[in-house]
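Lecture notes, part 5. Sequence design as translation. It can be helpful to think of inverse folding as translation between two languages: the language of shapes and the language of residues. The source text, in structure tokens, appears below.
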């Protein structure tokens, strides 16, 4: 099964920054749209951001717009999520996911391959 691997999570104080990275285990991300989702304890999986396969199209959830930036480097086969001005509500497990249709979907069900997640904890 094709899987993704997230890294870069950790604990940070409110207002701080983290950079998450997403890499595939055994395939190329070049043709896939990539989304980031998050899940807080006791809540459902929430859309965060998406980037098209060529990086031309990006979209963000309203809750992170202006604070998070999604980017990709197809030569390095990675997708990053730069998170700034972090708030306690940003805490949760962050997942990256790959969508072959590259539709820019905000729906987790449309994604084909997932990682196991990386924990982000924002607290003073």
């Amino acid at each position: 099964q094709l899987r993704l691997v997230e890294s870069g999570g950790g604990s940070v104080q409110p207002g701080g920054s983290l950079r998450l990275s997403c890499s595939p285990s055994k395939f190329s991300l070049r043709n896939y749209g990539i989304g980031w989702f998050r899940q807080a304890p006791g809540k459902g999986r929430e859309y965060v951001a998406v980037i098209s396969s060529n990086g031309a199209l990006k979209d963000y959830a309203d809750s992170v717009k202006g604070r998070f930036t999604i980017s990709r480097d197809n030569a390095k086969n990675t997708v990053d999520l730069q998170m700034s001005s972090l708030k306690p509500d940003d805490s949760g497990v962050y997942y990256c996911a790959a969508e072959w249709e590259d539709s820019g979907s905000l729906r987790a069900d449309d994604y084909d391959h997932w990682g196991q997640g990386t924990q982000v904890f924002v607290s003073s």
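The translated text above is only one of many valid answers, since several sequences can fold into similar shapes. DSSP finds no helices and eleven strands in the chain.
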